[in-house]
Every structure is written in structure tokens, then in C-alpha cells.
UniProtKB/TrEMBL annotation:
The lineage of its organism: Bacteria, Bacillati, Actinomycetota, Actinomycetes, Streptosporangiales. This is Uncharacterized protein. It comes from the Bacteria. It comes from Planobispora longispora.
Length: 316
């Protein structure tokens, strides 16, 4: 019969952080479990500051995946680069798949789809869509970016509102900054992709991008938009009575991803989704890397937290 310690170690290795936290009477183990669970749940705003019992190296890696909570906070985390955050998303997707927790897995895919255009824009912006560092050319004379009510602009009304807000949110107090990221930043991601890849009536908003780089950016942004409309991501909206009631089966997820790969493979950038890279959804890390035009490896942060927990449990 397994000992209590063996059971707790097994829970740690399975990333069952919430279950382990509920069973342990060790405050250090509990704090690390809370840290891991927030990451696994993608509920990671200020955890890296609070988790004093977690080794600094793990906290630094987690902070790289989070949005700053004030306009001037340093370091800039996921506004500096989204690649660490997408590495974590891939790890969360993998863990959820192996635990057969498919509803939160599909939710993670939905989050990935919303910000994917910013992963493409990182190569030309030099950051990951930081509202404090938008290029001046985005609002050059003749630009419709952020002009509310302009009927010549292809942006939806929510996108126009979000684009308008992103140009001034860096001057707002922390509460307004956080509210913007909660509700509007993903709309800005889509708006930028539309500007460079899908606008039927282009203005000067994208003239700041060097002409020799614009076609490449447009191709990657177009695939980012296409991913958001794939059968895989649409599983998030498949429930007949709102989100959370239509949990797909593993077979449905696999079938939706296969159909998505066929759609995405019609473009050179999207062909990366056809790669057999060993991921539970084969080709997904390769697709993200292709859109980013840079390697986006799957994180090992959750695995490393689990390993640290095992060490704590065995030394206790």
C-alpha cells in the first residue's frame, strides 16, 4: 500500500496542485501549490509578488508570462514578449489534455487565439503590443486607427473603441489600465491584424512597417486571424447554453484539430500546423512559432514546479 507521502508525490507529478494543497499541512508546500494552480488556471496577475515561498527563479519565469498591473511597472513581462506566455499556454494545454480536463484546455486555446496577432507583430514592434510604446506612425496623418465612428474603417465598433483606448491608456491610473487589459486588449490584437492583413480600404496606419517586411507580417497576421476561426477554437462556443456546458470529448478535439490543420495548411505560414512535433495537438507549437517567426517552445514551468514540490515533500 502506498504511503501518504507517495500519494502526495503522485499528485505533485500529475500537476494536481489544488488537490495537494487541500491535503498538505505544510504551509510552504501549500504556498507553492497555490502558485502552481494559479499558473495552471491562467489566473496569474500578482501571484509572482505574493508567492514568497516559491524559489525566485520560478517566480521570475512566471512574471515573464504576466501583464504588468500598472502603466509603468517594470519589468514589462508579457508586454515585452509574448513568447514565454505562449510557451506556458502550450504547457497548460498539454497538461489539461493528459488530465482529460478538456473544457479548461479549450478555454486556453481560446485565449491563445485572441492574442495571437500580437505574437506576429512582435517582430516589427520590438515588443508585444505595449500601449506605452505604440509607434507614432500608427496615428500618422490619414490613419483611421482609433477613430471611433469612421465608416471607411474595417474595424468593428468594439475594435474602434479598443483602438482608441489603447492610444491613451498608458496615461490612466492603474485601475483603468487593468480594466483595459481585462476587456479590450485582445480587441486591439484583432484590429492590428485586420489593418495589415485584411483591410478592404487601407489607410496609413501600417505605413510605419517597412515595405519589405509588411508582406511577411501580413501573411503571419492572416494566419493568426484564421486560427481564431478554426473548428478547434470554435469548440469554445459550441455549447447550446453558453460557455461551460458543452465539454468536448477527446475524439471531438482531435477531429476538430485535424480539420483545422487542413484549413491552415492552405497558406505557407499555416503549413507549420502539419508538423508532427510530438505535441498532444501535433503541429500547434510549430504553428505558433511560424506565426511568431521565432521559436516558441513548450514551457517546462509547471513541470519544474511539480519537481520542486516533490523535493519539498521528500525532504519534509
Amino acid at each position: 500500500m502506498d504511503s501518504v507521502q507517495d500519494v502526495l508525490v503522485t499528485l505533485a507529478r500529475r500537476h494536481a496542485f489544488a488537490d495537494l494543497e487541500a491535503l498538505t499541512d505544510d504551509p510552504v508546500v501549500a504556498a507553492v501549490c497555490e502558485f502552481g494552480q494559479r499558473l495552471l488556471s491562467l489566473d496569474a496577475e500578482d501571484f509572482a509578488v505574493e508567492a514568497r515561498e516559491v524559489p525566485p527563479a520560478l517566480r521570475r519565469r512566471a512574471r515573464a508570462c504576466t501583464m504588468p498591473q500598472t502603466p509603468k511597472e517594470q519589468p514589462r513581462g508579457a508586454l515585452e514578449s509574448l513568447r514565454p506566455a505562449y510557451g506556458l499556454l502550450l504547457e497548460v494545454i498539454s497538461v489539461r489534455w493528459h488530465r482529460r480536463e478538456l473544457s479548461p484546455m479549450v478555454a486556453a486555446l481560446h485565449i491563445a487565439s485572441e492574442y495571437l496577432p500580437l505574437l506576429a507583430f512582435e517582430t516589427v514592434l520590438g515588443h508585444a503590443g505595449d500601449p506605452a510604446r505604440w509607434p507614432a506612425g500608427l496615428t500618422a496623418p490619414g490613419s483611421r486607427f482609433g477613430v471611433i465612428g469612421d465608416r471607411e474603417c474595417d474595424h468593428t465598433k468594439p475594435e474602434q473603441s479598443a483602438a482608441n483606448r489603447t492610444l491613451r491608456v498608458a496615461g490612466e491610473p492603474a485601475e483603468g489600465w487593468r480594466a483595459y487589459f481585462d476587456r479590450q486588449h485582445s480587441q486591439v490584437a484583432g484590429a492590428l491584424a485586420t489593418c495589415v492583413a485584411d483591410c478592404r480600404n487601407p489607410c496609413t496606419a501600417m505605413d510605419w512597417v517597412e515595405p519589405e517586411r509588411r508582406d511577411d507580417l501580413a501573411a503571419r497576421a492572416r494566419v493568426a486571424l484564421a486560427f481564431a476561426d478554426t473548428p478547434l477554437v470554435r469548440l469554445r462556443h459550441a455549447a447550446p447554453v453558453g460557455h461551460g456546458f458543452g465539454v468536448p470529448s477527446p475524439e471531438e478535439v482531435q477531429e476538430a484539430w485535424q480539420r483545422s490543420r487542413v484549413v491552415l495548411a492552405k497558406s505557407e505560414v499555416g503549413q507549420a500546423a502539419s508538423a508532427e512535433d510530438g505535441f498532444p495537438l501535433p503541429g500547434l507549437p510549430s504553428l505558433f512559432s511560424s506565426i511568431a517567426a521565432a521559436p516558441v517552445p513548450t514551457s517546462t514551468l509547471l513541470d519544474d514546479i511539480a519537481a520542486h514540490l516533490v523535493t519539498l515533500l521528500r525532504s519534509g
